[in-house]
Specification:
- The chain is of the alpha+beta class and 129 residues long.
- It has one domain: PH-domain like (Roll).
- Helix content is 26%, strand content 26%.
- The chain is built from two helices and six strands.
- Strands 1-2-3-6-5-4 form a six-stranded antiparallel sheet, covered by helices on one side.
- The longest helix is centred in the last third of the chain and has 20 residues.
- It is globular and about 35 Å long.
- 26% of the residues are buried.
């Protein structure tokens, strides 16, 4: 990690927040400076520490992860997913997009954010909701 997450990385104002799910487990979500959710973690974790570690690992491994845009089964739209080396989904788009091209652009922006976070001195953590 080389510089602040909000200096020159495309991550200005973006932050990762940890949420406590109804079952008591933890999940991360990445939000933009306007509060809009960019991405959601696809897994839940038993504690805050392991959830944070999973997001940090996602940032560190981001260049080696596969993913892309696909048609959303639950709606008439497009979603993106990011998978680890074992094919497990690690991150998903926060919403379905009407156009493939818009979804692809959102996916590419998310990938750039992950790279920016990897280069940051510290990740921009938000408060637990």
């Amino acid at each position: 990690m080389g510089r602040a997450a909000d200096e020159g990385s495309g991550a200005v104002g973006s932050r990762c927040q940890i949420d406590i799910e109804e079952n008591g487990w933890f999940a991360w979500r990445l939000t933009a400076n306007n509060g809009r959710v960019i991405a959601l973690g696809a897994e839940t974790y038993p504690d805050d520490k392991s959830c944070r570690a999973a997001f940090e690992a996602l940032c560190e491994e981001s260049e080696r992860l596969a993913g892309g845009v696909q048609h959303a089964a639950e709606s008439n739209g497009w979603i993106w997913r990011l998978r680890d080396a074992d094919g497990q989904v690690q991150a998903v788009s926060a919403r379905a997009y009407e156009r493939h091209s818009t979804c692809q652009a959102a996916y590419e922006r998310f990938r750039v954010l992950l790279l920016g976070f990897r280069e940051a001195d510290a990740l921009p953590w938000g408060d637990t909701d």
